[in-house]
Amino acid sequence: MSFTTRTLAVVTLVVQIVQANYRPPPYSDHSRQYQYHQPSYPRHQTPAQRQQQPHRTQHPSTPASQYDPYRHAYTTQPPYRHPTASTYYAQYKNYPHAQTQYVSQPANPICDIPPDLWCDSPQSAQQCGVQRQCDSLRQSRRPLKVTLIYEALCPFCQKFISNQLPAIFNKFQGQFQLELVPWGNARIMRDGSFSCNHGQKECDANRLQSCVLDILSVKLALPFIVCFERDIGRFSVDQALQSCSAFIRNQYRQIKECYDGYRGQELQRLAAQKTLNTKPNPIMEVPYLLINDYTPSIDNNNLNVLMLPQLLAKWTKMYH
Question: For the whole prediction, is pTM greater than 0.85?
Answer without folding.
Answer: no
